[in-house]
Amino acid sequence: MKARIVIVTAVALGVAAVAVAQTGTKWVDRTKADVRAGKASFYDVVDTVLKGEQVQVLKTEEKWLSVKTPRGKSGWLFEQALSANAVAPGGDSKFLKGAGADASTSATAASTGAKGIYAQDYAKKKGYDYGVVTWIESNQPTAPDIEAFALAGAGK
Amino acid sequence: MSRRTVLVVLILVAASIGVEATNVGAQFGIPRIPGIPGLGSRSEPEQNPMEMFQAFSDMDEPQEVEVGRSVAAAVGARYKLLRDAALTKYVAMVGNGVAAASDRPDLRYYFAVLDTPEPEALAAPGGFVFISKGALDLMRDEAMLAGVLGHEIGHVALKHHNATIKAQRTKALAMFGANIGLSFVPGPAGYFTPVMSLVADGIAEGVLKGHSRGEEMESDKVGFQYASRAGYDPAGLKEFLAELQAKKSDAGVAKFFSTHPGIDDRLQEQTKMQQARTGSGGKREAERFAKALRK
Questions:
Q1: pLDDT in tens, B211-231
Q2: Which residue among A45, A119, B112, B252 is least packed, with the fewest CB closer than 10 Å?
Q3: Which residues sit opposite A36 in a β-bridge?
């Protein structure tokens, strides 16, 4: 009987410890990371967090964490973007700033990174048509398109 | 020995022994050098030549995406882009499903179709994935497409371009040291610009020439897994490779083999993975594929 109580207590403590580990505060461990509306990279960006910022983890599903950002926005981050330990702020990203204040935390700054500013310069010098890249980036399906596509089909 | 020579030697030594570039300048007490073009004489006093090397010692995702865009422009210069929005979106919808099941599901992926009858599939850093109309024409269903896209996504997820980035960075250092062939006049991104240009050149060349046999095998392995996790029959990749092998005497297909080595070994490995797989089947979606391809 005693042994059973010990085991049950240990299991309960273990479950509690895991739950604690999966919620609480985490720190952004990348130059920047996009907080998205869903658990995949094709979902819209709701906020961008920068290295060293703290987020509150609300829950974990698979390898995606539901978080609240310092600006009060809620969305999903992939686990590899976060650290359980405090991370020093990354400072200003000259690379992103050089592209036009893209190191900001605005939603529009997010997934586009440096917006192709440097790549356009490269293409121009090489004599390449950067319109190819622009066309590709502007002809991708939306998140609702992809969700509907996944649900449709014969499934066989 | 001039201060410039001392600086170059120190930088090359740091690079060759793999020292993390962060704090290298401070560690070696490397001074800023005013008066030398591109080394502190311009109007951005906060810039330091070391930043150029720091950027490529550990390229972050925004930088990788920017290099990817540059490489995509180079691919677009080699092959004509098929500006068919419906077909592009179809390929991207299959690709996004597979990418979401990959080891790097948080990277935004972009998919495109190349307007060439040659079977070809390419991936650039930062998530740019290309497949040719010629490759699509060899496929019978979506499972084959998912397998090939899974393979290309594997190159991105496994960061197979990093070796080229490292090699090009070392080349940039050497050219900087010899003061030849590469203008270190800062561009829109300061010193990042000339180095990025060199890195993009190297990766574009590598992407168009193809990956090593080992990298192809690695990407096959994860491509199989990604397609399977996305719900597709992972036999699709093997079937595509077999289709190519059956047509290997065709001129266009022969070119594919020159950039994708070791097809016999790859087929054998795929067969082993298929045999070791727990569970069976998966989506094929032949009708949807035929409709999208207007077959």
A1: 888 899 999 999 999 999 999
A2: B252
A3: A45, A76
8 Å CB contact of B106 and A30: no
Q: Judge contact between A105 and A89, C-beta under 8 A.
A: no
- Per-residue model confidence as pLDDT tens digits over B82-116: 999 999 999 999 999 999 999 999 999 999 999 99
Q: Judge contact between A87 and A33, C-beta under 8 A.
A: no
Bridge partner residues of A55 (DSSP): A26
Of B219, B165, B160, B239, nearest to B197 by C-alpha is B165
Tokens 């393979």 map to which residue? B151
Beta strand residue intervals within A40-141, DSSP E: 45-50, 54-61, 64-68, 74-78, 82-83
A-chain residues within 8 Å CB-CB of B65?
Answer: 113-114
State how far residue A129 is from chain B, nearest Cα, in angstroms. Answer: 7
The tokens for A86 are 């405090």
Distance, in Å, from the CA atom of B95 to the CA atom of B233, rounded to the nearest integer, reads 15
CB-based contact B63:B55 (threshold 8 Å): yes
Are A122 and B196 an interchain contact pair (Cβ–Cβ within 8 Å)? yes
Quote the CA–CA distance of B105 and A40 in Å, as a whole number.
Answer: 6
Residues forming a β-bridge with A35: A47
Chain position carrying tokens 């010990």:
A6
For residue A36, which amino acid is it? Answer: R
Lookup result for tokens 């030849």: B180
List the 167-186 stretch of B: residues with Cβ below 8 A of A.
none
Distance, in Å, from the CA atom of B204 to the CA atom of B222, rounded to the nearest integer, reads 23
Class of domain A23-151: mainly beta
**Adjacent-strand bridge partners of B190:** B187
Q: Does B109 touch chain A (CB under 8 A)?
A: yes
Domain coordinates in residue numbering, chain A: 23-151
